[in-house]
What we know:
Largest sheet: 2 strands, antiparallel
Radius of gyration: 16 Å
Number of strands: 4
Number of helices: 7
Strand content: 5-15%
Shape: globular
Distance between the termini: 35 Å
Helix content: 40-55%
Strand order of the largest sheet: 1-2
Amino acid sequence: MRSEKDVRQNLTALPKTLTLAYGEIYEGILAQEGSAPQIALNAFWWIQCSNEPLSSETLLDAVTVEIDSSGRFSQTGPATTEQLLTVCQNFIILDKKLNTFQFAHLSVNKYLDTKLPKADSYLELSMV
């Protein structure tokens, strides 16, 4: 739990630029335990690379699919909305009217363009 004092102290140490702020958040995403970083990265890739917005159910299923080196699929089960929003640390939001996840702001998408590898083909995208 954060106290008012903690909040005030954090406000004095805010990053100077939006890029630095996003960098801190991104590093926090990567530093999470277990499969959380990969689930977050999968969500970012799917949102960025999809030709059309994916339904929340589709994205929740897609982010937990893994493909091993032999090409076999496995899935740890669909993530929940709360789990996905937590591991993505406010980089994405759920549009309840459209029932889709999207980046919280266009600047998040632009920032992630500098961090995420690009898929050069539909085959590569299918391996995300």
